Structure formats: structure tokens, C-alpha cells
Amino acid sequence: MIFEGLSDKLQGALSKLKSKGKLTEKDIKDAMREVKLALLEADVNFKVVKDFIKKVQERCVGQEVMESLTPAQHIIKIVNEELTSLMGDVSSKVVISPKPPTIIMMVGLQGAGKTTTSGKLGGYFKKQGKRPLLVACDVYRPAAIKQLQVVGEKLDIPVFNMGDKESPINIAKAGLSHALKNNNDLVIIDTAGRLHVDEALMDELKSIKSEVKPHEILLVVDSMTGQDAVNVAESFNETLGVDGVVLTKLDGDTRGGAALSIRAVTQKPIKFIGMGEKLDDLEQFHPDRMASRILGMGDILSLIEKAQENMDMDKARELEQKIKKQELDFEDFLEQMEQIQNMGPLDKILGMMPGMGNIKDQLGDVDLNGKEMKRTKAIVQSMTVEERRNPTILNASRKKRIARGSGSSVQDVNRLIKQFNEMKKMMKMFTGSQKSMKKRGGFAGLPFFK
């Protein structure tokens, strides 16, 4: 789960308050000390942490919280609101020019994932009906042009290049002319990076900016580098001026220092986040949703969006009826695993469900990717139709036959049956929580929103 270390520590610090009735000022200060340590360990900028704790503490010690019937819930709500504010309050979108083409200039250091992100961004806007053109202006890094061409080919997006002998400034200008002639309404310029910020790089980027006058300059930084990413963002912004930040490799970032510091230090919004290696693993950044996920409140809106993009909604409705009637069978199990697999890793999906971020521990070693998925399919496909539809008849001799037919062991078959039963329990629990939420007025009924 993203920011897992930070999330666990923050939730741990705040959960201690829930066990108390009335809170004293000392209780709040003790909790804030733990929150402060959690943020510093997550590599959040020291000044940012200091200001954050000061704001939260000032609001928490106010009369409204101290006299509340549920002060712990109010404090969680305040932390949630201040985390959201820290990361930018509202989502910030790319400015689309009323007069095409919109020009986006991608900048950043080597290794941050700039070239792949340029392609992902093209794919993101292509889904929205745009006609993007990728322009290869990195003439220094070996195979950079080829990499952009490969990405463009996979996404069916044209790539403009003039080889590695022409100057990046001339390539950018020629790419813009090519877009105008070929009716491309979005131009994404992949510029060169360096291993560190240097004068020659900045001069070249400033020249490209001067010549093509981009509508947006997006800085790509590796979130896993923490404070280094913040320092890079500060340098690029001071020298070049950037309009927004793209944080890559966020799915592997357990700390969250860059995401929580960049906005406060640079005053520039995070516009997109990279959530994996697939070419569609680029998402618009929503500060409020990220704050909720960090505090274990889930992210239902993102979950719904992912489901709508990747799942067959007619089949989902059929499955919902089966769950309600307790009629889930192995055929449904396999189909559901495949659909969930399309949405991304299981722990990422569970992290979007309120209060269910840690339920992955209950699923044992279930793995929806790679070998485990193939083994699961083989086991289910080795069952008879009757066995799939009525798993209760799976006795010892049937399990042996299924194990032989799927090239697995009886232990593997037993493990799958256990996972199936755990999934049924989880589904039942989730549908139950939906009913109780409806009775209590939906999300407004949750304690955090009272």
C-alpha cells in the first residue's frame, strides 16, 4: 500500500485517542508528538512538519474539540483536513489551450521516469478524445528516442523525431509545426535530463521554453527519493518555472515525504501520480482522496472510477445479486479475480476501501498476479461444473483428482478453498457495511464527517 509506513504510524498515534473519553491538552500534545515523529520518519520537510503540527494543535486545543462528545473523531477530521490542505486542497488540472495545440513540456532529471511518463500522459489525454503528438527532444541519453517510439507504438500515438544530431530547440520547433500540419491538438515535448541539475541543462530548457512557449511545464520527480525530490523541484521551479509536478513510482513509496512536502515548499501543485509500470498507470492527483487513504478512511471515488474503467458492470450487477443471496461459486470467484486483476494489485484496491487497508493480512499469501493466478485458473478449470457450482461437495478424493489434473498439490487446492471462503466472508462483510452506511445516510453517516 502507498505510504504504508506513514499510514500505519499515523493511524496508530490517532487510534490511541479513540480509547479515551474526554481529552486533555496533554493527550493531544502526546498524540501530536507521535504524529510529528511519523512525518519526520517519512522524510517530510522539517519546516513543513513544524507548521503542520502547529496548525493541527491550534485547532485541536480549541473549545469546539475539547467539549465535543467524540473529540478523537474531531481530531482525526482536523488531521485529515490539514493533510489535504498540505497537499493542495483541490485537484489541479492541466490547462488546455482554447486555441490548439496545447503544448506540454516535460522536464526532470534522468531516472525519474520522464520519457515513460510523457507517453502515459499522451495515453491519458487520448482517452479523453485528444490527438496527442510526442516530440523526442532528448538527444543525449542513448536509446531515449527509441524508448519514446516504443511507448508511442504501444499506445498508438505518433512520435516526432529528427534523430540525435539536431539541436533539441530545433526539434521542438519542428515538432510544433508538424502538429499544426497534422491536426494534433496536444504536443508533449520529452526533454533531456541529467543526473543532477546543471547550468547547461537549464539553459537548454529555458531556450526551448522561449521558442515554443508551452502552456504547461510539468516536472517529473521520483517520489521514492523523498527530500531529494523536493530539492529538485525547488531548483527547477526557481530557475525554469514549473506549472505542476508529476510524482512517479508512488506505488512503491512507503514513506510519502515528497508528496507531503512538494506543494508546501514550491507552492506548485502535484497534478499526476504514477502508480505502476503499466502505460495506463497514471492518475490525476486528488489531495483529499490521498489524505483519506493515509488515515485509513479509504478512497471510494477512485475505486468506483477504476471499476468503471476495468470491469464489466453487467457482470458486476449479476455478482452483487449472487452475493446478496449467498450463491457465490468458484466460477464467480475466478471471474472476479480476473476483473480485480485488471484494476491493479489487491492491496492497492483494498487500500481504497474504508477501514479495509489491513484486511490483506487475512487473505494470507493470496497473489492475483503471475504464477498464483495461473495455478488458480488451472485448479478451478480441473473441477467439474458441479464442483465449481457447489464447492461443499469437494471431499478428499475429489481434491486429489483436481490436484492431479491441475499439476498442483492437495495443499494448493485446500489453500484455494480457504481463500474462496475468506473472499465470501469479505464480500458479505462489505455488503453489510454498505447497508449500514445507507441507513446512516451514506458517507455523511461516517464518524469522520459528523
From TrEMBL:
Assigned EC number: 3.6.5.4
Keyword line: Coiled coil, Cytoplasm, GTP-binding, Hydrolase, Nucleotide-binding, Ribonucleoprotein, RNA-binding, Signal recognition particle
Location(s) in or outside the cell: Cytoplasm
Domain SRP54-type proteins GTP-binding: 269-282
Chief place where the protein resides: cytoplasm
Enzyme class: hydrolase
This protein's record includes keyword Amino-acid biosynthesis: no
SUPFAM superfamilies attached to this UniProt entry: P-loop containing nucleoside triphosphate hydrolases, Signal peptide-binding domain
Keyword GTP-binding appears in the UniProt entry: yes
Coiled coil: 316-343
Binding positions (GTP): 108-115, 190-194, 248-251
UniProt cross-references to InterPro entries, sorted A to Z: AAA+_ATPase (IPR003593), P-loop_NTPase (IPR027417), Signal_recog_part_SRP54_M_sf (IPR036891), Signal_recog_particl_SRP54_hlx (IPR013822), Signal_recog_particle_SRP54_M (IPR004125), SRP (IPR004780), SRP54 (IPR022941), SRP54_GTPase_dom (IPR000897)
Catalytic activity: GTP + H2O = GDP + phosphate + H(+)
Entry comment, domain topic: Composed of three domains: the N-terminal N domain, which is responsible for interactions with the ribosome, the central G domain, which binds GTP, and the C-terminal M domain, which binds the RNA and the signal sequence of the RNC.
Purpose: Involved in targeting and insertion of nascent membrane proteins into the cytoplasmic membrane. Binds to the hydrophobic signal sequence of the ribosome-nascent chain (RNC) as it emerges from the ribosomes. The SRP-RNC complex is then targeted to the cytoplasmic membrane where it interacts with the SRP receptor FtsY.
Subunit comment: Part of the signal recognition particle protein translocation system, which is composed of SRP and FtsY.
NCBIfam families recorded: ffh (TIGR00959)
Family: Belongs to the GTP-binding SRP family. SRP54 subfamily.
Protein name: Signal recognition particle protein
Name of the gene encoding the protein in the UniProt record: ffh
